[in-house]
Design a protein that fits this description.
By secondary structure, the protein is α/β, with parallel strands linked by helices. The chain folds into 3 domains: 139 residues, no CATH class; 74 residues, Ubiquitin-like (UB roll) (Roll); 75 residues, no CATH class. The protein contains 10 helices and 19 strands. Strand 17 and strand 18 form a beta hairpin. The radius of gyration is 20 Å and the shape is globular. The N terminus is likely disordered.
């Protein structure tokens, strides 16, 4: 595995550590390419999955490997890197990569470490690099995250590249704003909607009754485009952060950033609770996930919603059939029956109710009704995947 050149943007506020964790690498049994104490360059391979060697994780920044941790059955728990105080900018490749056919695009996704950023639907988790989806959905929760016309051109190149790995459309799913790029070839740009991944999927290419789709995030696709153009794939992403007083800021953070460092720099006057997500903040987080682009800092003394109180704490919780929950789900998916099926572990009923079109973030708002919906959905999706194997 050779290192892909990465570019570090100005990173403010600084994070002293980054980590890649099991949250983004479920069921990975890693083959490590580094050891604790090794110095690594940005873009250097850290590990690959033993059974799927094209699923490679690379270092977002330069630094020193502080910890390699395995969990049960030798699955990945975390790889932590202490960020170097300063690093030299890597040299860009001398020529563009063509990314002109399926093989070249798949190779680009491997060398840049972008395969694990994609989510395969149904079930979630990184896709099989040998598979070919029926469609690709690219989520753009914050169109302003692309800073300039160069990034927009890179996005256009990345979208075109993804068209080589599917026989179907590549949808650019924007939450708001005018189209970032024009529709062309396989690329489609539906009208903007502030929807979750599951809502977009059910609307454009449901997998509830069969087929597959992959979900990507817009900045990851722009990173792929920059690589295809002969540039460098950045190890940072623009993240929208909401402070306890309600103000919002956009910062470039390294993938896997230690959000406790970020919170201390942005809100030093008090301790805060940290949540993060792709389209909306939903899970308590210390480390910024690969696809997470929104972060919320909340006063620790503030009452926490049931969604945050129950997340990550398995156990029975009463189901309160509140009104208005259906608006968080795709049309036709009834929240209360779905919650009942998830709470009882009835995978067949959850499947009939549309669970295959959903991932954890989609159902997080339902936790205000009591049950820990993300954890329960993950158990059901794992059962459905095992039954389909």
């Amino acid at each position: 595995m050779s290192a892909a050149p990465f570019q570090s943007r100005a990173v403010t506020p600084a994070a002293r550590a980054v980590a890649l964790t099991a949250t983004d690498f479920p069921d990975f049994r890693p083959s490590f390419a580094v050891a604790e104490g090794d110095r690594v360059a940005a873009g250097q391979p850290l590990f690959a999955d033993r059974h799927r060697p094209d699923l490679v994780a690379v270092a977002p920044v330069a630094g020193t490997v502080a910890r390699l941790a395995l969990g049960a059955r030798r699955r990945l728990a975390a790889v932590e890197i202490a960020v170097a105080a300063a690093e030299a900018e890597p040299e860009a490749p001398s020529a563009a990569h063509a990314c002109a056919d399926e093989g070249e695009v798949r190779a680009a996704l491997t060398v840049t470490g972008l395969w694990p950023h994609l989510r395969a639907m149904p079930y979630g988790g990184p896709p099989d690099p040998a598979a070919r989806p029926d469609a690709v959905l690219v989520l753009s929760p914050d169109p302003a995250a692309l800073a300039d016309s160069a990034e927009t051109r890179a996005l256009e190149r990345g979208l075109a590249a993804l068209g080589h790995i599917t026989d179907g459309p590549v949808y650019l799913c924007q939450a708001a704003g005018p189209p970032l790029v024009p529709a062309s070839g396989r690329v489609r740009v539906p009208p903007p909607q502030p929807w979750s991944a599951g809502q977009w999927l059910a609307h454009l290419r449901s997998v509830a009754d069969g087929g597959t789709a992959w979900v990507a995030e817009v900045q990851d696709v722009a990173a792929l485009g920059r690589w295809c153009e002969g540039g460098v794939a950045p190890g940072t992403r623009a993240v929208r952060i909401t402070l306890p007083d309600g103000t919002q800021r956009r910062h470039d953070l390294p993938l896997g950033a230690d959000l406790t460092d970020v919170a201390a720099a942005l809100w030093p006057q008090a301790q805060v609770s940290i949540t993060a997500g792709t389209m909306r903040p939903w899970r308590p987080a210390r480390w910024l996930g690969l696809s997470e682009r929104v972060v919320a800092l909340s006063p620790t003394e503030a009452p926490r919603s049931a969604a945050l109180h129950h997340w990550g704490h398995p156990g029975p919780a009463p189901l309160i059939p509140l009104g208005g929950l259906d608006r968080h789900l795709p049309p036709g998916v009834a929240a209360v029956p779905l919650l009942r099926a998830l709470s009882t572990g009835d995978a067949a009923a959850a499947d009939r109710l549309g669970a295959r079109d959903l991932i954890e973030e989609d159902v997080a708002p339902l936790s205000v009704a009591g049950p820990d919906a993300p954890t329960l959905l993950r158990r059901v999706l794992n059962d459905l995947r095992a039954a389909a194997a």
